[in-house]
Amino acid sequence: GASGPASAEQWNAIVAAAEKEGKVTLYNAATPSIQMRIKAAFEKAHPRITLEWVRYGSGALMAKIDQERSMGAEGADVAVSTETAWFDRHGKQGLVKAPVGPARAGWPANFLLNGMTPILTMEPIVMMVNTNLVKTPVTGQKDLIRPEFKGRIGVEDLASTFVFAWYDLVEKSEEPGYLAKLAAQQPRIYASTVAGAQSVSAGEIAIANFVNMGAALDAVSKGAPVRVVMPNPAFANQYNAAILGWARRSNAAQVLVNFLMSPAGQESWSGDGASGSPLPNIPNALDARVMRSVDLTPYTPEFTKSYRVRFESMFKR
């Protein structure tokens, strides 16, 4: 799994085979605006390969892929999500393929999980405020329990392992009983950061507690009356990519992942300034090498099962 890049001759053969396959299917947890930029840049670089993409939240995405594998159904060739434990486990089981394209040579080793799974980007989690509805400054998660925000808050549901970890770390960094106090604010619960960001933009809620920077900046670019708040502490999602071992179009999958690891692919993802690239000198990108990631190792199935019961007893009564 940890083999190096293919030779030039081998890579040319892979690209030729990918062009015969004609398309590649990507399941990605990133926001639609990122997906569309990637599609446009990839098809410009490889006009004989069509990129088809589908968006799922990270947890649902991995469940969908596991279901396709168990049924032998056609679906994703490449998966990108924040479920690091899934990529770690499947990599160790030999169920994903290592990238062998030329971009592999310049990729930082500490952003290549098990020598097989590139960590493509780090994206900060921020808060998002509707400026028409919120006049008193909001600086962090503690402000969500202010009395004036009762019934006007959006919170993220437990849609991925990272979200479990994020809530646990926020609880530990805020005042005792913080989560119960947040639940007492009668927030709306959103299954995705995109949905929460859209509700803030539309004025349906005043604040969202958990928004990917990409979704927030997308709303800003469209002229929505919103402000992005970087809380302290702030944590970053890491987006992992895998070439699925059962992919129907394995050559096109190699070409896509190589593109995503290349400077052009990194710019198509992180060039809007919403996330960090592991590569240096990507125009407008943040620097993933200095971001605070989250160790998901402690967040086992046993932990998440117990935490879900506790969370839902407070927020879904």
What does this structure look like?
The structure is a single chain. Strands 1, 2, 3, 4, 5, 6, 7, 8, 9, 10 and 11 form an eleven-stranded mixed beta sheet that branches. A two-stranded parallel ribbon has the order 12-13. Strand 1 (23-28), helix 2 and strand 2 (50-55) form a beta-alpha-beta unit. The chain is built from eleven helices and 13 strands. The protein is 39% helix and 20% strand. It is of the alpha/beta class and 317 residues long.
Number of helices: 11
Order of helices and strands: HEHEHEHEEEEHHEHEHEEHHEEH
Mean pLDDT figure? 93
The assigned structural class equals alpha/beta
What share of the residues does DSSP label as strand, in percent? 15-25%
> Sheet with the most strands?
11 strands, mixed
Number of DSSP E strands: 13
Task: Give the key terms.
single chain; 317 residues; alpha/beta; 11-stranded mixed sheet; two-stranded parallel ribbon; 11 helices; 13 strands
